[in-house]
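Q: What does the predicted 3D structure of SDR family oxidoreductase look like?
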Amino acid sequence: MNGTVVITGAVSGIGLSTSKLFLAKGWNVMMADFNEDLGKKVLEELLAEYSPERLAFQQCDVSSARSVDAMAQATHDSFGHVDSVINNAGIFAKGAVHEIDEDVWDRVMATDVKSIYLTTKAFVPEMIERKSGTIVNTASISGLQGDYNMAVYNAAKGAVVNLVRAMALDYGKYGIRVNNVNPGPTMTPMFRSNPQSVIDEFAQASPLGRLVQPEDIARTMYFLASDESDPITGQNIPVSAGFEIYSGQPV
Ligand code: NAD
């Protein structure tokens, strides 16, 4: 199968690698992202390689219903129906619960969790009608376990870890599959900005002794979005170099 995919958070890090892989595999790609300047730059670069019939960028705030609905309309105008939605946009904030400002709490929950509700409302009715489609969410290993000083991110990604099960149950009868990719620490621009000593420490903490690259996540996104992963649904798939499997017991 190849068709049309909507990717949120598409112009940086994991979303950009995922967009490039779907394009290389022959899919039409709607790249949706909040960052308009970077979006225009990335679009221009990709249009040197791919035709405008197969690729579009739409400025979109995934935490706003109005913005997501406008993006859905632009997607239908450009490509007709949608076969797959990759809910990848996400943000992170530090702090224990009592240290987090209310607006930061709300913004992380809206960007990382409510966004999935909004894109699902926008795109699932047409999938139900056609009785096919796939949805892939970027969760995190931080939704599968706890971290120090990352309370709202743990809460948000933990919600995504269980939301995928509810969506897979509710939409399975329509032939729609819903899965999560749960990245470990991944070498995106944000993570690269850490001091080298911190990056090395993270790498050494995984059994494979390395960090994950955005391309590693993209391959799993593609697998879960395409027919290659049929009949997998409702699953959380860590792509982490094994980072999260250690119990933490002293050696
Ligand atoms: P990134 O910052 O490189 O990319 C995130 C993209 O999302 C950016 O282009 C940003 O503009 C966009 N975005 C942010 N808020 C938005 C909004 N409201 N509406 C639309 N777009 C918005 O980060 P990344 O590391 O590629 O992260 C992608 C996903 O992977 C996130 O959900 C993140 O939580 C998750 N993740 C990342 C790591 C990691 O180590 N990098 C680990 C686990 C999970």
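A (community wiki): The structure tokens above were generated from the sequence. The mean pLDDT is 97. Strands lie at 4-8, 28-33, 55-59, 84-87, 133-138, 176-183, 236-239.
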